[in-house]
């Protein structure tokens, strides 16, 4: 049954082919168009008010052009965001504090550290849960509960508490990132490690394979598709965790700090630039995991 | 020296659980989780007392319990505002949207190739960044919180659902093809059932995300009720027991929410090897 | 040309990581309406691949294949086939009766009609009483029978069966062979049937196709002189034994190539 | 000597004095090595102090007194800000002119996290319920910025003279479009940025000495900053790691801050303290503090610093 | 008592949602060392279940089962068994040779020893050349052969085979039958073998166990008078035909109960 599940050599994997360009561009175009319309709509109210206050009458074209060039638009137009991004990335030396590359780097390092810790923790717990009934019954409900703790509320406390014992800098953020990222790994990994069907397990039993063997040669390989799916969610979660950790950390550096200060000063373009920088970062990270996934799975003959 | 009683309680809890694990009844299974939790709480209480940790850093469980009892009506109001309105509504809407989108994506190769990469990208937008924007767009009340939750839960459910719709095996698909099953039939009778284990994976992960989203969004503006609101004001007043009482409510609600979804999963995907045990 | 299934120089090559596998090479075959054709040949010679190509589940790399004068794909969409796969392929979330009624649901049979047909085919494959069980609660042979029942439940004009009776004991197998033969005589279906049993092939078929592997080719096509009415005892007649011998020789030759 | 200072908010000209003192070497002259920790929206400086993450914090007096009632013995050791910069900024088009009569039924934006006390006292003196309804006001927990006013989600929002008010103007509204109510003018002003330490810190004479030098250097920094607003703004910018602040905004903020500093040499004026306490005690059904605090401020540090 | 496998009043009942299924009922059987025992019986009569119980993969609900004088579970842990399942059950992430060498890895064979054994058994099942392919690149019969190779690669004293040759053509089947017989003679293994083919059972076994279904019982145990040396031609001898007849009669009776 399971070999049949994985037996789909002809099913094509999602990959960027030249043939994908057209659909992607089309969808992009639609999104950008909707975005522009939205920007005009959402920003128009303000322009009309302003015009009314000044007692002038705006023509439609004037209105449109103004809505797309506001300093603090409700919704910045795509080209404004693009410009903000461009200036943040290319317009500054990478070491400058105005450079998005610098802030992205600060965020990235904490994200990766947290992702590493979280993934390791998730896998270790999952292995424990699959092998020990005590752990299964006692850890899982509390792992769930841990995720329902509102991190944004806890984050400042974590940072304060860690600071009071002298831990500052990257680690507190990484811990918050790990907190968020271990859970998807845990859930996916538990499911994955339990995927082997009766016959596959029976084979192992008939060889009287020790648990470690069953783990390395059966459970782990069959869990890999689940693991990779979870890792993609987990790295995105780690990024969110880092940014959350950066928000109350006193707005020092990182994309979260950029978001916050942008938000604080109502600089929507800056918010959106930071947001897109974060999304690009996440997309790159997810794509990277996808790449690893494809190499690993195809080497194992599991690529679909 | 002062660590000794803590160590003792810890070992005692473990021993009790190992013993309980031997007798496999419904009751003992419930007890194990409870014993584990009680041990943790006991350790916490002891640590706070022995090391004299100030309340404003970490209140003891007993203080939290007292605050919980004293503030029941506040906690209930906040629960309704944040969890029933914000989180639950958002989760339901987001889940439906994600499932429908996944089906659309699965149906149309064009969308699949065009929307999924972009969807991946959009979904990678960190919610904390979106929250202030959505509050700006949807106002201060629960609608904006639900919107944040929709955005947060959409991606994980979508990804899982898309993967699930593809998770049919070749033989099962060939059968459908040999019957010339129209799209609708192969969706209803093959793809959707086969996708259920994956879908529930997504639904389970997002139950907790929904709570986080709804609470976090309140930090960016809210009426004067809600769990996020209460937490941030209570932190400002250094009323940490109340903060933790709210956290306890969140954890209870989240665990319950997760439990319900997990139960539904058991019922729906009874046929999957991971459920057959 | 009034062939139901016609293959002209059909070849099919699988591309694998370590080089191409020639599953079929220059296969020519014509099957007339109402024929019962058995395919026999060593494991890996392309029997499954050929049947799948006929049902438009694989696409030949070259050559022409037509079914009812159409492309196989068009025929598939016209619901010309009932297919029994080599593995049972039951849907684990449906009970046995649910599995059997699934194609009926898809083809729009009424509820009562479905119930009636499910009961009939369950009886045919001797699984009455297991209607409410789930696939994993059945033995291997029972699963195989359920999958046969599923293919028989809707009356497709062409039945393609890939080793349907491989996991069954001789007695059930004999009974099912008789039942299949009776069904075929009554309905005039065209049947493509893969088997490893020479007596079974000889007993059932009007035409026996012997194949050899690497690359998969047809080495012999034997038309059966046996009458359509075939009691089980026919297996002891000299014609039968001679025919079986001929098939066995054909198989031996194919193996010799290895 | 090392000293850690936890700010109440992000790096901005509101804290220019400390950054200037550091940049100009005033701390160094006093033999101090000061670490300045920026704050953020969810950092409660009082909590940081309690956790031992800082030696001194910048905090507002209402929050400090509330924390004191919670059992955290905070003591004010110096008060650089003489007057309050808080106000309520309303859209003129909502017709609000007189707080006594026009607030009822309106939606007002308020900062929470410990900054809500002055507002609650004020509403109490006005006799308005903050639970909404006909006779009361609907309160919104205002986020980080002035959007609720621009989006007309609230009739009035909280602003600081030195910061948000400028943002509202920057956004394109003119002073004519706005009506403002300063807490100072309404008689409900409470003391803002002051320096606080834990009671136990003051028991250590060496610490008191260190703090005295710190306050002295900080006040020197403030004087310098008030005299050279542009240079001070530049120093703030240099210390801003987000790279988000602009020179223009910080220079203007510095000038407004200078107005709040006027009349203070760092020593707490007991009359101001008393007014703050009175305002807070009048908190109505849910007063911020329930009893006049004892020992919530101490002149020992300023005495040693300036005498 | 020198029986390798001994069953005393073994019963096994599956609890399913719609009532219990009695898979085995009061099964008594003793198998001496070096015996080759075939199990034959209609589909669903409990053959698989019995074999699985012997290998400690199911636990009887009542009765006593001992293997080498131990509990089946202890025997399993002593690696007494090689098991061939009814379905191939190859691990999809390992190549064919990887699948075969997996139990060897687990049992701690050296790398060179593994390579040597894999090559030997691949040759035995005629799959040399497919070592590097993944399971889904093989035909059904080839997968089944790979799974047989896997069970033969490590020299377990007891071989339990559940319809190992079901998906193979007659010629390969004959060859593998001969090979298995040779192996058995050479090594003196004890073999439990499920098959649906009466000639196969008679050709291979020293003892044939006939079962009947619902509840699964042993209806007949036939000891074979055939000598250990068995050329393929033995199948045309009168002893052989008489034995086959006896088995067929036993099977008929079992079916009669239905
Ligand atoms: N998806 C695939 N990818 C690569 N090679 C394949 C694939 N499917 C089949 N083959 C190869 O094609 C050849 C023919 O396979 P096919 O399944 O048609 O054999 P068969 O005659 O049905 O054999 P059997 O009797 O064992 O079922 C085999 O050599 C097999 O390895
Ligand atoms: N996991 C299970 N749950 C419930 N019933 C089961 C289960 N496994 C087997 N059975 C039932 O037990 C009976 C015996 O099954 P078993 O697999 O032993 O038959 P078998 O003799 O091997 O048949 P076949 O020749 O078809 O493989 C069958 O009626 C089957 O439905
Ligand atoms: C959540 C939140 N709280 C307070 C303020 C307003 N604020 C900005 S500076 C300052 C004085 C403290 O130094 C205050 C109260 C805000 N914008 N957001
Ligand atoms: Mg085949
Ligand atoms: Mg069986």
UniProtKB/TrEMBL annotation, chain A:
Gene3D superfamilies assigned to the protein according to its UniProt record, in alphabetical order: MetI-like (1.10.3720.10)
Record SUPFAM superfamilies: MetI-like
The entry's keywords: Cell membrane, Membrane, Transmembrane, Transmembrane helix, Transport
UniProt membrane topology term: Multi-pass membrane protein
Pfam families assigned: BPD_transp_1
Localisation: Cell membrane
Transmembrane segments: 21-38, 104-130, 142-164, 170-190, 226-251, 271-292
Assigned GO CC terms: plasma membrane
Residue span(s) of domain ABC transmembrane type-1: 104-293
Biological processes per GO annotation: transmembrane transport
Keyword Cell division: no
InterPro entries: MetI-like, MetI-like_sf
Family of this protein: Belongs to the binding-protein-dependent transport system permease family.
Designated name of the protein: NitT/TauT family transport system permease protein
UniProt source species: Paracoccus tibetensis
Species classification: Bacteria, Pseudomonadati, Pseudomonadota, Alphaproteobacteria, Rhodobacterales
TrEMBL record, chain B:
Annotated ABC transmembrane type-1 domain residues: 95-268
InterPro entries to which the protein is assigned, alphabetical: MetI-like, MetI-like_sf
A Pfam family hit: BPD_transp_1
Keyword check for Transmembrane: yes
Any one GO biological process: transmembrane transport
Cell location: Cell membrane
Domain of life: Bacteria
Bilayer topology term: Multi-pass membrane protein
Residue ranges crossing the lipid bilayer per the database entry: 6-23, 30-51, 83-105, 117-140, 146-165, 198-222, 242-264
Keyword vocabulary terms for this entry: Cell membrane, Membrane, Transmembrane, Transmembrane helix, Transport
GO cellular component annotations of the record: plasma membrane
Record's keyword annotation contains Transcription regulation: no
Name this protein carries in UniProt: NitT/TauT family transport system permease protein
UniProtKB/TrEMBL annotation, chains C, E:
Keyword hit for Nucleotide-binding: yes
GO molecular function: ATP binding; ATP hydrolysis activity
Record domain ABC transporter: where: 5-234
Superkingdom, taxonomy of origin: Bacteria
Pfam family, one: ABC_tran
UniProt entry keywords in alphabetical sequence: ATP-binding, Nucleotide-binding, Transport
Annotated family: Belongs to the ABC transporter superfamily.
PANTHER family linked: ALIPHATIC SULFONATES IMPORT ATP-BINDING PROTEIN SSUB (PTHR42788:SF13), TAURINE IMPORT ATP-BINDING PROTEIN-RELATED (PTHR42788)
Protein name according to UniProt: NitT/TauT family transport system ATP-binding protein
Species annotation: Paracoccus tibetensis
């Amino acid at each position: 049954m399971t070999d049949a599940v994985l037996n789909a050599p002809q099913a094509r994997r999602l990959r960027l082919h030249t043939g994908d360009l057209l659909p992607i561009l089309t969808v992009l175009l639609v999104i950008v168009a909707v975005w522009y319309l939205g920007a005009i709509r959402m920003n128009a109210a303000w322009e009309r008010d302003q015009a009314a206050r000044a007692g002038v009458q705006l023509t439609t074209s004037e209105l449109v052009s103004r809505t797309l060039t506001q300093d603090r638009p409700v919704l910045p137009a795509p080209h404004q965001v693009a410009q903000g991004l461009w200036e943040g990335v290319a317009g500054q030396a990478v070491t400058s504090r105005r450079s998005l590359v610098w802030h992205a780097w600060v965020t990235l390092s904490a994200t990766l550290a947290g992702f590493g810790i979280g993934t390791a923790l998730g896998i270790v717990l999952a292995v424990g849960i699959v092998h020990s009934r005590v752990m299964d019954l006692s850890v899982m409900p509390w792992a769930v509960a841990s995720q329902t703790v509102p991190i944004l509320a806890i984050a400042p406390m974590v940072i304060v508490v860690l600071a009071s014992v002298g831990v500052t800098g990257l680690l507190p953020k990484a811990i918050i990132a790990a907190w968020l990222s271990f859970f998807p790994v845990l859930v996916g990994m538990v499911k994955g490690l339990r995927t082997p069907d009766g016959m596959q397990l029976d084979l192992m039993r008939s060889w009287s394979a020790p648990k470690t063997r069953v783990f390395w040669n059966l459970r782990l390989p069959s869990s890999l598709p689940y693991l990779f799916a979870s890792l993609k969610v987990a790295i995105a979660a780690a990024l969110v965790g880092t940014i959350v950790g950066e928000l109350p950390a006193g707005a020092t550096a990182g994309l979260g700090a950029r978001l916050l200060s942008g938000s604080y000063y109502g600089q929507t373009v800056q918010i959106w630039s930071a947001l897109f920088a974060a999304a690009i970062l996440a997309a790159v990270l997810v794509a990277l995991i996808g790449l690893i996934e494809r190499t690993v799975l195809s080497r194992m003959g599991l690529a679909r | 020296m002062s660590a000794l009683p803590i160590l003792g309680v810890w070992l005692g809890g473990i021993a009790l659980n190992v013993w309980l694990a031997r007798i496999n009844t419904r009751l003992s299974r419930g007890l194990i989780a409870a014993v584990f939790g009680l041990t943790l709480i006991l350790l916490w209480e002891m640590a706070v007392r022995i090391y004299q940790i100030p309340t404003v850093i970490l209140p003891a469980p007993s203080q939290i319990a007292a605050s919980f009892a004293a503030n029941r009506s506040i906690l209930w109001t906040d629960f309704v505002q944040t969890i029933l309105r914000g989180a639950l509504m958002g989760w339901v809407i987001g889940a439906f949207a994600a499932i429908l989108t996944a089906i659309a994506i699965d149906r149309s190769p064009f969308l699949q190739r065009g929307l999924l990469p972009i969807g991946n990208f959009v979904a990678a937008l960190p919610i904390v960044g979106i929250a202030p924007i959505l509050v700006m767009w949807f106002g201060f009340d629960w609608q904006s919180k639900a919107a944040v939750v929709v955005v947060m839960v959409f991606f994980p459910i979508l990804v899982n659902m898309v993967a699930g719709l593809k998770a049919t095996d070749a033989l099962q698909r060939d059968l459908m093809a040999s019957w010339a099953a129209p799209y609708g039939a192969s969706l209803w009778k093959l793809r959707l059932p086969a996708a259920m284990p994956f879908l529930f994976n997504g639904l389970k992960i997002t139950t907790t995300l929904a709570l986080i989203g709804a609470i976090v969004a309140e930090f960016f503006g809210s009426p004067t009720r809600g769990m996020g609101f209460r937490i941030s004001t209570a932190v400002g007043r250094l009323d940490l027991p109340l903060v933790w009482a709210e956290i306890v409510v969140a954890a209870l609600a989240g665990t319950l929410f997760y439990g319900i979804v997990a139960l539904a999963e058991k019922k729906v995907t009874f046929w999957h090897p991971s459920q057959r045990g | 040309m009034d062939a139901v299934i016609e293959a002209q120089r059909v070849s099919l090559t699988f591309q694998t990581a370590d080089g191409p596998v020639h599953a079929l090479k220059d296969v020519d075959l014509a099957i007339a309406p109402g024929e019962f054709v058995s395919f026999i040949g060593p494991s890996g010679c392309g029997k499954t691949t050929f049947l799948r190509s006929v049902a438009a589940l694989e696409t030949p790399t070259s050559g022409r294949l037509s079914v009812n004068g159409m492309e196989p794909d068009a025929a598939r969409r016209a619901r010309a086939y009932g297919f029994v796969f080599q593995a049972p392929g039951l849907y684990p979330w449906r009970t046995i009766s649910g599995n059997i009624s699934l194609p009926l649901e898809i083809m729009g049979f009424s509820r009562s009609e479905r119930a009636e047909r499910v009961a009939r085919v369950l009886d045919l494959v001797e699984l009455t009483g297991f209607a409410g069980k789930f696939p994993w609660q059945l033995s291997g042979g029972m699963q195989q029978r359920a999958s046969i029942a599923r293919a028989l439940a809707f009356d497709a004009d062409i039945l393609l069966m890939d080793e349907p009776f491989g996991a069954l004991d001789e007695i059930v197998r004999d009974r099912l062979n008789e039942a299949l033969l009776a069904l075929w005589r009554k309905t005039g279906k065209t049947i493509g049937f893969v088997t490893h049993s020479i007596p079974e092939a000889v007993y059932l078929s009007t035409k026996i196709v012997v194949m050899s592997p690497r690359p998969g080719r047809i080495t012999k096509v034997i038309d059966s002189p046996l009458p359509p009415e075939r009691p089980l005892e026919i297996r002891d007649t000299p014609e039968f034994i001679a025919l079986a011998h001929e098939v066995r020789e054909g198989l031996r030759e194919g193996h010799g190539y290895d | 000597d090392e000293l850690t200072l936890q700010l109440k908010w992000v790096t901005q000209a509101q804290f220019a004095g400390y950054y200037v003192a550091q940049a100009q070497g005033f701390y160094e002259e006093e033999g101090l090595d000061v670490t300045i920790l920026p704050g953020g929206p969810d950092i409660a400086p009082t909590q940081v102090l309690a956790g031992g993450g800082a030696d001194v914090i910048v905090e507002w007096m209402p929050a400090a007194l509330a924390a004191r009632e919670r059992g955290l013995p905070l003591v004010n050791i110096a008060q650089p800000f003489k007057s309050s910069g808080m106000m309520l900024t309303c859209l003129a088009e909502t017709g609000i002119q007189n707080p006594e009569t026009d607030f009822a039924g309106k939606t007002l934006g308020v900062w929470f996290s410990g900054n809500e006390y002055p507002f609650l006292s004020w509403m109490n003196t006005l006799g308005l319920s903050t639970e909404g309804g006909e006779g009361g006001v609907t309160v919104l927990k205002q986020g980080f910025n002035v959007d609720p006013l621009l989006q007309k989600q609230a009739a009035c929002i909280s602003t600081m003279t030195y910061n948000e008010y400028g943002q509202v103007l920057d956004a394109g509204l003119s002073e004519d479009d706005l009506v403002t109510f300063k807490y100072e003018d309404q008689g409900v002003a409470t003391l803002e940025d002051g320096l606080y330490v834990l009671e136990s810190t003051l028991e250590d004479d060496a610490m008191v000495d260190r703090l005295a030098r710190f306050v002295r250097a900080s006040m020197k920094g403030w004087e310098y900053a008030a005299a050279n607003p542009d240079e001070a703004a530049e120093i703030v910018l240099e210390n801003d790691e987000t790279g988000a602040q602009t020179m223009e905004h910080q220079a203007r903020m510095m000038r407004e801050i200078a107005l709040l500093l006027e009349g203070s040499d760092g020593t707490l004026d007991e009359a101001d303290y008393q007014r703050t306490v009175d305002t807070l005690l009048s908190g109505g059904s849910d007063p911020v503090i329930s009893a006049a605090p004892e020992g919530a401020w101490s002149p020992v540090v300023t005495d040693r610093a300036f005498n």
